[in-house]
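BUG: 3D viewer hangs when loading the predicted structure for this chain

Environment: internal workstation, default settings.
Expected: structure renders.
Actual: progress bar stalls at 90%.

Input used:
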Amino acid sequence: MNELEKEIQEAIAKNLPSQVGEVLTKKLEELENVKRQNSSFQLKLKSKEEEIEAYLETIEKLRRFDDMEQTLIKKEKELQDRERAQKIFELETQLKCEIEKTTFGNSILNSLVRNIEYRKNVFNNETINIPPYTDKNGNYQCMGVKTKITQEETKETQE
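Structure tokens produced before the viewer hung:
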């Protein structure tokens, strides 16, 4: 106890009856108990405040992460949309090129077919069986004669 408390207790013992002194002594002891509890509670309170502050910092970090995640999700969606648009553009361009190639090929084919006159020459070697005969020299001939047959055909295409 402090000197002040000792002095108070001595003054109480001298001036007040012993019964009042005992009551005051009990009150002083209760006060000391309350002070100890108060200091214990103050320490717990300080500890809890530190925990709350740590939780608030964690919450703030999580909010920032959530904001960053939302931003990333938005950017990913934009990127997917741009990639899809680019792919569509590429496919449309490829389709246009293929249509132009087909049109060009058809125009060349049509110009070739419209303006061409073609000829067909057929050459066949055939053996014609001739009945046996006697030639100019009096020799007897009994074999066929090979002849060359040429067939020529010309056609014009119609438009």
